[in-house]
């Protein structure tokens, strides 16, 4: 009977050790003298360097008589980001005296390559204006983007296509070149 109890106790000890050993397998060892190879840790991503630039965003007055200059600070990483930030600011109103004609226009894509900014937009019905409004839409875009030295020309597309006129009044150049 004593042998049977000793064997039972030995079996319980072995079983307990096996269970405890299985639970520790996935945990890292904390022994300083351990010879286990360290796991590869990913290096932290380098923080992008953000630049700021003071720029002028060109809007219009409420009566569509003249352009209104709105100074802003743009934050960007690359020249393409600077163009995108300027267009985003161009879509914001600046108060009672400055109106953005770009606000209702959906900007689908903006690309910069070799000094050419290509902007693909969607023009909803509420963004369509008369001749003075159409002229200011184009003029505010050109004035805003051509202030950057690296922008040499602008290609304005509507739903991916070159069109003769944006809203039916003013002829578009493809591309519009800096003068």
Assembly annotation: single chain
Q: Give the percentage of residues in beta strands.
A: 15-25%
Radius of gyration equals 32 Å
Count helical runs.
Answer: 3
Distance from first to last alpha carbon? 107 Å
The low-confidence parts are: none
Query: What is the makeup of the main sheet?
Result: 4 strands, mixed
Q: What's the mean pLDDT score?
A: 83
Instruction: Give me the side-by-side strand order of the main sheet.
Output: 3-4-5-6
How much helix, percentage-wise, in residues?
A: 25-40%
Shape: elongated
Strand count: 6
- Topology as H/E string? HEEHEEHEE
Structural class by secondary-structure content: alpha+beta
Summarize the structure.
With 179 residues, this protein is of the alpha+beta class. The protein has helices spanning 2-24, 79-90, 131-145; strands at residues 51-60, 67-76, 106-113, 116-122, 153-158, 176-177.
Give an overview in words.
- This protein is of the alpha+beta class and 179 residues long.
- Helix content is 28%, strand content 24%.
- It is built from 3 helices and 6 strands.
- It has helices spanning 2-24, 79-90, 131-145, and strands at 51-60, 67-76, 106-113, 116-122, 153-158, 176-177.
- A hairpin with a 2-residue loop joins strand 3 and strand 4 (116-122).
- The longest helix is centred in the first third of the chain and has 23 residues, at 2-24.
